[in-house]
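INFO worker-7 received task bundle
INFO bundle size: 2
INFO processing item 0
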Amino acid sequence: VVSRPARALQLRLASRALRLTPEGGSHGTRVALEWSALGSLTAQALAAHATAAPAHARPELAAALADLVSWTSPRFHSEGSERNRKGSDAAAVLRDRLSRAASAVDHGPLRALMAPVVGPLVDAVIAGAMTARDFAESTAVRLQFASVESSATWAERRRADCSSRGVAWALLGLLRLHLLLPVGTPDPAAATRARLDRADAKLSRETAPTLACLAWQTRAAAATPPPASAVAEAKAEARSLAAESARLARNVVPRPDPPLWTPMLAEAARFRDQLASVERVTGIVAALSANVGAIDEGGTEATMKARAAATTKARAEAVAWLDAAGPWGGRLDVSFPGYRDATEPLQLAALELRRGLALLVSAAPDVSSDGAKARAARGKITPGYADAAAAAAAAHLLAFPPLASVGGGSAAALLASPATQRALSVVESVAWTRDAEARRGADATKGSAARSAAQLRVEALRAALAAAAEEASTSGSLSIEGWRRCCDVFASLSSLWAHARDAEAEAEREAAELFRSRTKPPTAAETLEGDDDKTEEEAYRRAFGDHGAMFEDLQRAPDAVMELGDDEGEEGKPKLDGVPRADADSDRDDDDDDDERTDEEKASIAAAKIAGLLEGDLLEEVVAVHRRVLGGLRGPPPPPPPPTRADDPAAFTAAAKNPSGWWAASGAPPTPARYGRVLTPEEAVRATTFVRSYDVGAKIARAAGLVDVPVAVDEISSVGHLLRTALEHACVTRAPLPADGSPMIHRVGGGKKELETKEQTPSAAGAGAELAAGSEAEAHDPAADAAADALGADLNEGGCAGEMYLVVAPVAAVRRRLTALLEEWPEHPLLEQLAEICDRVLALPLLSPLKQALTGLELLLARAQTWEEGAASHVSLAEELTACAKLALRWRQRELRTWPRLLARAAERHAQRAHRTWFALHRLLRPPAGIKKKARKDDANADEENAAAELDARGLDEEEAEGLRQVTLALEEYVQGSTIGEFRARLDLLWQFHADMAVERRSIRFASRGNGAREAALSNVLYNTWRYYVQFLPAVARQVEAARAPCAQKLRDHAKLAKWEDRGYHAMKTQGEANQRSLHKFVRAFDVSLNALVLPVLQATNGKVGLPDLPSERGAAEVAAASAAAAQTAKEAKNAAIEAKNKAARDAREKHKASSAGLYKNETVEERARREVDEEEAEKEYQREAEAARKRAVAEAARRASTAAEVAAERMREEARSDARQSWLDLTSSVVADASNAARAIELASAAVYPGSPASAMAAPLRLDEESLYQSRLPALAKRLGEVLGSSLAGAPPVDSTTIAGQHGADDVDELASTIAARATALRDDKTAKKAVKKKALTDLLRALPKFGIQSARKYVPDSERSPSAWFREAPLPRPTCLDSLGPIAEEAFDAADAYYYRSMARVQRLRTVRGAAHSDLSSREVDVACGSVEHLLHILRRQRRNVADAARVERGLATLAEGVVALQSLGGSEPPPPQERTKRWLLSQRSALDAICESVAAARLVHKTVSAAESTPGLKPGGGA
């Protein structure tokens, strides 16, 4: 954390370098340029010896060398395409010309090298330059990794090209090395020095004295003056000698004394004759180039072993040569200083030779590595295929935007393919072995490859899952190809899960057989339900985290008294003082004692690791992607109906905002906040997905070996490198949370009332007060919940670099102060411990959870308190500790804001437990292909008649039907075995797989892979199971709320007392721990209550079905009557109370008058008793009369209200019938008119067409003149259809065939049901009704039911539809599209009818359950008739639903035809419509192009924003400017 500024600067500079580094072209372009350089250097080496050729042969040699340079030039291939088409012929001509021209050179060393070196070099350059052009232009880089096959093909071509370049470089270096400085070559610097000395000597000894003499003769009077010509000649000679001396002085090279030229020539000759001899180098080159790709060519075992041995020997010799020749060039500089002009050409030639051999070594197969890969692959794939798959996977994962968006193939299809998975497994196994050998030696890795945890495969599948979701969502609709890619990923993950489960089951079985007395450890679910101390502690750490691991050895003060157990670690082992505890997910323990484990234990460990990898975040992502693909894109079935506000306020609010995508969004993970405000939520999600994929790609490249990863991978992932760097910079530079960072969250669990928030200080006490003020009527605030979750993630998971960096300043200040104190008191134990705590806090990772730093701060404050208690003021740490205390207080205050989400997170954990069943459901509904093949193989010996099983009405054979029945029973057990906390999540999974099967059926039918009958039947079963049990969701929600309410109240009460004040460092730490323990106790109670099974709740809810529920199903008249009766009853009760009070007062007054008058003065006891009895009888009579009057009043009020309601309802029904009738008449008239117009148009068109015309030939197939066809009688048919359909509408006059259960049957049945309910309720409430009356009513009812078509005989319900499993296999009723046009009343009626059907299923099952417990007054015949009638009613209901579904299907067809007619009419008849199929394809292609453009724009925006944020210099930002 302390290196945050340096890290930010490093990332900023890295981003700038990646962005501003000029591009060097593609890898193919660079290869072509390299061949051009090879051609130029080869021509230069030969041209240097042109002087040794005869004069007449020099022009031919120069022309041939010029052609060689042109041949290798990239411009030659781009401009000379016509010449290049004859590549082989032109190459042969060029070889011949060069051979003839070079043969004329009379140079001994060159002629000796002509056959072994020059000829092969020229051939290699010519052939390599020709193939380089094809290699560079054959395909785009992005297509090289579209599939593993293309990657393997490109790798082979790359290896061949690398080998060709290696041969050329090696031969070129060998040629230059042997032509340079042959033995006997004089030192050119010595000759230059000799000429310089001669010139200087002549100038100083001859020319200068001559000039002096001539000058004396000129000046002396007695001397004869010299001739002018002699003086001029002497001066010219002096000038010439001076110029030559200056020129030679510039060219002279200082040499050591004594000279080392001869030893240097001897060293070069010795290197040429021994290590770099022509025979040795050409032999290595030939051996390596011959074995390129030989290992993968196949052949007999002996042949392959011989190839492997030859390749191994050649590689070993080449590596040894490289190791030996490496120091030679550097030794020349050390041994022969002053001869740089001679040693540099030798070094350059040696480097060319080394590069060639290095290229050959890299191109030649590594037998040891390939052997390890072959052993890991066990013959399923070749080592080259594994490398190609790893390269392709790395390319797809590192690239941005994804290669799929630019036509580079699908990353999901590539990563999820079995071949790629096997290749990654091989690469991972080999890498694990290689790393283990590097750590511990080769002896400790025996059997380690078989123990690989498949982590790389799982991470690659996770990246494939994200890629599949992104590829599917790019266009916003689910295509068949996108769905198949998603299915492949799901199948691969499910296969891994099945392997882990089978391995675990096998290990448990073997352990149970061998050690029957050993107790099986508890499962994860059992651990959650445990009540022992260890389980509670694990649950506490799961809820609040364990962030004190790295400070565990510092928990005890230096002067603390040793207690029992302080010297023991886990399970009695000695405690390792000073060593932090390893993380729970560390693999170190596995590495240390691997040899002590058996193969079974290793397999169980691997299975446990795979299972662990497939849970947690990955499992939640699988479920979320599955939901997103099936619920958030166009194509799959629509989302389920949203819950009510009372059941799930969050889902209700989301559905109100996004009716079509709320269901997919509800399962999406929270928006990551690690990038701050740089990105939008959608961009942050995409950035997180890319970072995860990029990291997986980097792991694959590291596992495969960075040397083996092609350069093209780095080339196509350049933007990915830049984006990854910029995103890391955004994460590192994320700002700290503001002082009022998170909103005041004042809720615990949601509600309806929004508290008024006034201006408040961001204190923890204020937050606690608002939290405590919550109630069950609080408002659901998604923004506040998201803020609380983000804050909780920062505290417990990390990611907020700015907030984490706040710890540096105060802790660094404390550390500086401690350093000064330690200088005064060295080795002070307490000061050293405080310094160690500071160092560990400052050494925390920048993106670690804030609670880790908070733990260290509180430990520092607690330990420092001991120092402060006895320290003087001049050595006090109070000032530095105050800043630490403020920071700890700040984080504790923010932790308080996350409390309202504790109960919600507890419920979410139960949903995550339900998500663990996703893989089991996937395997149940989508069994692997191997199981199907095995089942078919078992029946292969059956007779043909039995093998070709007959299909039922659903298109299923007998085996599939039995499997469907088993699946139905399994799904029922799956739901009934749920807990109340998992019930909702399991229902959501049922809907997901219902949509899954529906889409799979369409996929199968589209690809013609079958009829999709099994998938359609499974989709029906899943939907009906979901729809049946979703009716119990409110009851389960009430049960959950009943368990949550007391815990929420306790949490609110605790919040009233929770406040953070600076009351001392010890108190702060103690209070934080105590608060967490108290919160955990409340949340744990709710958590445990959610583990209750849901089956008792379902049974209790279903058991309440009966007469008590009838009042909720009464008609409008009964509801009005009941309401009026209740109101009149209340009024009468009030009047009765007033009357009773008044009567009591009157009686008291009359009794007082009588007593005052002395009427009771002489009354005897008998008379008084008789009087009181008479008064009581009178009172009872009065009460009976009053009660009868009240009942009459209530009945009269109910009758009037019922009559008024019935009249109003009948009036409304009549108005509705009248409106419907009139609308139908208007529609019929319009249709008849349109039909008449169409008939007239056809008649006019037919009359205008004369025989023999082209129009007549076109119209002949239409048969417009045949009156027997329906199209010729369209007006009459339309009119008759209107009359027939109109007679069945409500309000139409009855006809002779109308019966009581006919056209008006629906109204009569509804009236019958209301009458039965009212009569049953009246008989139940009437205490005076005798048993015979009730018996007679029941008998009359059972006799009247057949009049309504309700039969009780068993034959009226087919046997195939009597079992509940058959009900669940019934096709669901699709929502008719015409409901939107019929209005909200029709929609409400349809929803009510659909809910009534599934409620009826529950009642029939309940009736069957309680049938045996019928009252003794009922005969078995009456019970049979009642139960049979109810089952027949359910059968009638199913038939009606089928009729509605058929009618809806016909209506959809008619609506489609009507839309087509309207579309044709919109053309105006002037032009024929365009070809529909071709137009559709064109529109789809345009849509795909627009989607690709939008995807590119979104990707460019993401890169631009992150890169701009990473650049601090305005002038260097993308686009320039600020």
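INFO item 0 finished
INFO processing item 1
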Amino acid sequence: SRQSPTGAHPTRRRKIMSNQVPFKSWLDLCVTPDGKSNSNGGSQPSHAHGSSDEVAMRLRKEARLHFEALSSSYSEVAAGVDLPSSPSKTSSVSQDISKASSTTPNGALAHLVSSLGPAFSPAANIDAKERALHCLMGSLEGCNNLTHGVRQAVGRFLVELCRPESGDNASDGEDNGDDVMDQPMDYVDAGNLTSEQVTQQLESMVQQKRSADKRSSKVTSTLAHDDARDAALVGLTASLHSHLELFPTQQSLDISQSPLTEAMGVVYQSMELRLELAMLGLRYRCQTEKSDPSNGDEMWGGAGAGYETTNPALNIEDGLSQLPRLKRSLCFNLLEGALDGLREDDLKLNNLQSQLQLQSHSSTQDASQCRPSSLLKSMSSFTSLVSSCMHGETDPRCILQLLHLLNKIQQTMLPIYGQNSNISSERVTEMDIDTLEVTFPSIEIFDAVAPYYPVQFTPPKNDPHGITRGMLQDALMAVLCEKGASYKSQITALQKDDGGHVEEKETMVILAGQMFLERLEPPKSLEYDPPSDGSESDTEDKVDAIQDLSSLLLQQPLSSQNGDSGVLGGKNALNVTRATPAFFSSLSSSLARVHETAVSSDKKSLASAIRKFSSSVAYALEPDTSSSKSTAPLWEAYVVDLLRHLTPALGSAPQGMHGRASTALFASMAAEGGLMTLNKVIDGCYPRFLGVLSLLDENDKCKETDEGESSPKSRMSTQKTRDEEKMAAAMRGIAALISSCRVALQKWQRDNEGVQLHPHPLRNYIASAIDKISIVLSESGVEHEVGSLSLAAIGALESVLTSADLSILEERDMASLEKSFSLMSCTALGGDGATVDDSSKRHEWKMACARVLGAVISVGLRQDKGTSNATTSSCGRMNNFARSLLPEVLASATSPLQGGPNLRITRYDWMVLAGACANSTSHVNEQIVSELLSSIMAELRTSGTDHRAAAMALSYVVHHGGPNVGTAFHSLSCPGPTPNDLLEALCKPLKRGPFEDSMVREKEVVTRQLQVGMSALQLPVSRAMDEEVANDAMRRAYSFLPFLIPVYECPSSISSCNNLVEFVDPIMPPLSEWDELKLCVGLPLLAAILNSSSQVYRLLESATLKTLRSMITYLAQFSISSDHDTHSRSAAASCLFSVVFHSNGDDERDGNVIQNLLKKVVSPALTNALDCLSKEVTDAATPRASGCLIETSKQSMQSTFSRVEDALSFLGLLGSAAACKGGPFSQTSDKIVSFLIRLACTGASQFPFSETTLQLVIPSEMEQKHPLLHTSSHAYILPASAFGSMLSVHNGGPFWRQRLTHKTLPVLLKALQSQAKSPDPPAMGTLTVVCHMICCLPVSLLGESNVKQILPTLIAGLVYFSKNTDVLTRTEMTSSKPTDLLSIILAALVKILRTSPEDVTKFVRIIIPSLLLLCSPTEPCERYIPKQLIVLQCLEIIAAHPQARNSMLREKDQVVAVLSAVVDHPSLIVRNAVVQARNVWYTLE
């Protein structure tokens, strides 16, 4: 049996037909005034009564859901249809509507439009029309696929609805504005009126009221009609955004058997239709009643051919500007919807073309790929229309939307235009002449967006839209740079002249580039000003122009944006090929001029940006053999023309500003512009520089003649004729070109997997350069003349050695070089190798000689391993000279100075070694470091005079010789000296006498078990002698350690960490004086490694980490014990902090490690020390019988006080480690800081994780009145200082200080409130806590109110200390803590004066007298000088207090008088500070 006409099963057909039921109910809902359906029969939809807007939204939602279900059902039906044996031979547009069944989504949509016809009739009200439009809008949103015919019919219908209201309503509305002034009055003045007159006026008022109501209803009707137009516009947007369904009927359902050529024609018509509908919809929506044509039928063309307007004068700009921002945005959405549909059609068209090529078995189909001229014209008109929308737009939201739309147009349409250019040359003459003449309107786009450049938008405060200047700038640059558009570069660069010939025209790239150039170099006739808002300077504005040029020309295509080309844009940049040679010639000239101006005005950022950009453009333009299109003409216009224009100045006046700027620009282009640019620059510039240096040959001949005639007068005239500055500039230019060559070759090797370039670019010039350099250096060495030419020549020689290929040199060249090297060796290594009363030029000359000698060693020894270059005679001679020079340099570098050690002196022999290591291979580094290490060990075996020169040389080489020096040191192995041998040598005694057997035994493995027995006993000659020898060895080790620690701070020192841990671990805890010595050496070096980088613990071996964690307890006991050396204890504490902070062991997750240390190490030590201190303080109050006992008691007091200080400081270290580590350790740090604060403020506190309460000695009432004199008050400073040490740590996250402050402030403020009632001076503990918090914490963290509460304590402490300066200068004080407290008080005052001076305004008249007392103590001493300097700094700062000017003027005479008396201070630094402060006060007015 035959199938039904719909091609579906009858059951399925009935199921789909049941979906047509809502159409009648939707119509009833639209035309019913109250929004309720009144359809007879069937069930009514369950709509509740509501406003017109609510009903419209419900209809839209129902329609969308209905058509979405209908589309999915039709897809299922179409999937099960049996296709006919023979396909249809026709699939025209006219058949789409007639043959489409009403059960298909397209047929249902056509049926819906006809069903809703009564709602659009003239008799229907505006609400019915708006509801019907919303219903149609929802159906279009639910239909994702529309046929061309349905879209044409529906689109034409919606476009007509976008027209403005016409007829009587329009004419009535014309007088609305005039009637506004004739509003009826709401009262009648009955004074002096008869009753008839009053009645007459009342009737007139009623008549005016009726007229006003009528006009108001007409205005409301007009606004409602505009809403209907907007709804039609949104529906039209949905229809244009939907996909194209080519074969909706059963007869042509099989795409594989469909007529592809006719289908492509349908796609072309669909593309034109989308654009024409969008343009007409926008134009009609922007029309007003006055501009509406009386008849719109002439606006339409024939069906199937798209719509063409016959009124090109129709302009939308005026109407668009009158629309609100939201309605303008709807218009732009319509354009974007059409553009999205166009993109989908183009993808479908490309798919059909591919199928057609497969069927015809042809690789190219020019005819199919060529787009018709009508489509290109439509796209051009569409683009012009969108561009016109930009004119006069001021809202940033609409500007951003339009810029994104224009860039999307470029991405979509430019490839379509490009397909027409992808045809053979034979086809150009066969094509339609109109197709060739239609071009993309890039100029119109540029004209539309150019007024917005540069973007100067500043968003308002609290902007809810979030549009920034950067967003607008990026969108604008995307349009100007045609970002994302991939097309043939010639499609927009061709146009026909009057004679019919194809010629180049301006493109978007050229136009945008010229605009950017005008910003970079404004024409003299153009009065250009940088941004007027003051946000950018002229230099920054020009740098932005360079960045915009870079974005324009050097952007990469989408396929290569993830790659790294090495320079901006790279050789894959597309826009550089879219410009003309004339543009690049103009670009290079402008860049050169602006660069010269920037160099002359010292605008380094602008000059650097220009050089980088210029080099990148040259690299991008360099012709590539792999590219189908050569960029040689562009490269020649950019590089060759610039060389031709600028190089003459290099030969005539290289020392001038023009010559120097040109040299710098060419050097940069040679380094980064590619090999062709490098060779061209060298060939263009090098002969010019050599021509300038040819004066040396002439002068040399004149000199030989003068020597023969012995005419001094002639020699003087010859010397005057030499233009030294000119030749020095030429020599510097040669050096710059040689260095650029080295950079370019390194880049070449990096990009070509290490392949070296042959022949060398400098092959033809290097010999001439060496000849000129040798002449200059020989004269400088003989005549001892050091000028600009000599310095330039030696710099050029350094560049030659490090960059050129020396294998091409001849014997004569090498002989002259060796002669110059010998002269430099005498200069840099002669005498004591240091700068002593040398002038700046001599110093610069010696430094240059040292750098050259370092380069000689590195280059010469580089050929020492049997390389191919070593076989040539020149390289062999260089190697021999370097091998003979290195021992001489090492001997000079390791020899002590004649005047004794001086850490600040400059050693040129050290510079030679550093330069040799910086430029050489690892083999040379190992050789130099091994020799230095051997010298250090030889110095350790000697005794007597100071022999630290080798260690100082090693430290200098590590600092200045590059990272390979540290790697070479830590990778040394046997049979040469190793770092382990250095450790052993540092731990040996100065003399090997009776202790030889003992030291041999020290080399045995030491375990933690103390050996017992008669065989293990050792009876030294004298215990005191043993300790003395160990102390001497320790002092010698400490003299070497400052120069060895930098070697262990380099990143490569991690390889030595394992050996150091193995060295330290067996001797913890130390059992003898020699163990102490080893720890004094090993612990500082281990601390240097552990604290060098946060990456150390990620690279260490697991066994080493486990050993470090096992050493935690021993390190803690060693650090807190006073029986060991102070420096080694400090290093052990540093190691402990690093291990605890970085370690992630399982036993630390709950903070058990720190808690165990608190219980087992800190608590016993602190308890014992506090008990001893209490006993010492009590005994000190008892009268002594003799002076000897008093002296003994003082020493005991100091020792006990130090023990308490050490225990509390170690507690602060554990607390800071816990605070920085965070997490579960935060609670541990909270308990530690609470203990320290309470102990400092109250004198008693409970020890963390313990029930024990520790207490300081409570001062008596007399001691509280003068706390500086009594040790009991000094003890309160110790816990406060430990708290300050916690705040001073820089590790950890950003919030742990905030947490500690939150825990601390309540306790501190409570103590300050209780102490404020006492007339005594502030307690030492609370005063110290206040000062540390002010110094270490920002004011914002403390809070302004809290600062004001703690500030009086600071001022009171300042006053108290100023009245007792005599106590601070005494030498018999038990502790230095009170003196240190004064430094902290002054530091806190400096910070307050700098950060918040308004808080101390009311204390100014108290602060100034106190500072004057502090700056002039009664008994000045050397250790008080740092305090005086801080006091003078406070006086200088407070003189500029903005809110206490009157107080300053009242105190001026007194301050000047006191400072004048201090001018005669013995210390020079104090005198200078006094003079500076006095001048500030003296000039106050």
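INFO item 1 finished
INFO post-check item 1: The two ends are 116 Å apart (CA to CA).
INFO post-check item 1: The beta strands are 145-146, 243-244, 494-496, 502-504, 1244-1246, 1253-1255.
INFO worker-7 idle
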